[in-house]
Write a structure and sequence with these properties.
By secondary structure, this protein is α/β, with parallel strands linked by helices. The protein contains seven helices and six strands; from the N terminus they run ββαααβαβαβαβα. It has two domains: 149 residues, Ribosomal Protein L4, Chain: A, CATH 3.40.1370; 41 residues, no CATH class. Strands 2-1-3-6-4-5 form a six-stranded mixed beta sheet. Keywords: Ribonucleoprotein, Ribosomal protein, RNA-binding, rRNA-binding.
C-alpha cells in the first residue's frame, strides 16, 4: 500500500510503499491486550513485602494458660489476628513477568502498526531532525502538523537536537526504531514514523 510522506514543515515529500504484511495485518484486540499486559507485568518492580508470622520479632511464649480463662485457645502473639502480628498471605518479593511466545509478540507489533494505519492515525515523515534543541520551535512545528498526542519513531539513532527539543513537549514521545513497542504505540493517539523507521520495522517484522 502507498502512503504520503511529508516533512516537519508539513510539505509534501513524495510517497512510500508500505508492506502489507506489516501495516495491513488484521486488527486483533486480543493480541494487543496480551502484549500490553505482558509489557506492564514485566516492568513491575515486585519489591513489595510484608512480614509473616515467622519474621515477627517477639516472644513465642504462650499468651495465657490453655484452660480456665474463658478466652480462645491462643499460643503466641505473633499471629495475624493480633496487633503487631505477622500478616497472613501477604505480598512477597517476586517477579511479576510471564512468558509470551516470540511469534505472538512479533504479531502484536504488526497488529499495533496496522491498527494505526487502519484508523488513519499513521503519519510518515521524511526525517526527524532539528537544527537547534529549542522546545518552542519543535512545539510549533508539531502543532502545525496537528500532533498533540503522538509517538515519533525515528531511525536506528535519534537526532540529538530533535530528542532534546521534543522531550519536554507534553504528550509527545520519541523512540529509536528498535525501541518501538506495542504499549507506547497504543498509549498515544498518533503514530509518526520516519522513512528510516519504516525500513527498519519492515526488516524486523518481515
Amino acid at each position: 500500500m502507498k502512503a504520503k510522506v511529508i516533512t516537519l514543515e508539513n510539505k509534501a515529500a513524495g510517497d512510500i510503499e508500505l508492506a502489507d504484511e506489516v501495516f495491513g495485518a488484521p486488527v486483533r484486540k486480543d493480541l494487543l491486550a496480551r502484549m500490553v499486559n505482558y509489557q506492564l507485568a514485566k516492568r513491575r518492580a515486585g519489591t513489595h513485602k510484608v512480614k509473616n508470622r515467622s519474621e515477627i520479632n517477639a516472644t513465642g511464649a504462650k499468651m495465657f494458660r490453655q484452660k480456665g480463662t474463658g478466652r480462645a485457645r491462643h499460643s503466641t502473639a505473633k499471629v495475624a489476628q493480633f496487633r503487631g502480628g505477622g500478616r497472613a498471605f501477604g505480598p512477597v518479593v517476586r517477579d511479576h513477568g510471564h512468558q509470551l511466545p516470540k511469534k505472538v509478540r512479533k504479531l502484536a507489533l504488526k497488529v499495533a502498526l496496522s491498527a494505526k494505519q487502519a484508523d488513519g492515525k499513521l503519519i510518515i515523515i521524511d526525517d526527524a531532525t532539528a537544527k537547534s534543541p529549542k522546545t518552542s520551535e519543535m512545539a510549533t512545528k508539531l502543532s502545525a502538523l496537528g500532533l498533540t498526542n503522538a509517538l515519533i519513531v525515528s531511525g536506528a539513532e535519534l537526532d540529538g537536537n530533535f530528542a532534546l527539543a521534543a522531550r519536554n513537549v507534553k504528550n509527545i514521545d520519541v523512540l529509536p526504531s528498535q525501541g518501538a513497542n506495542v504499549y507506547d504505540i497504543m498509549r498515544r493517539d498518533t503514530l509518526v514514523l520516519t522513512k528510516a523507521a519504516v525500513e527498519n520495522l519492515e526488516a524486523r517484522l518481515k
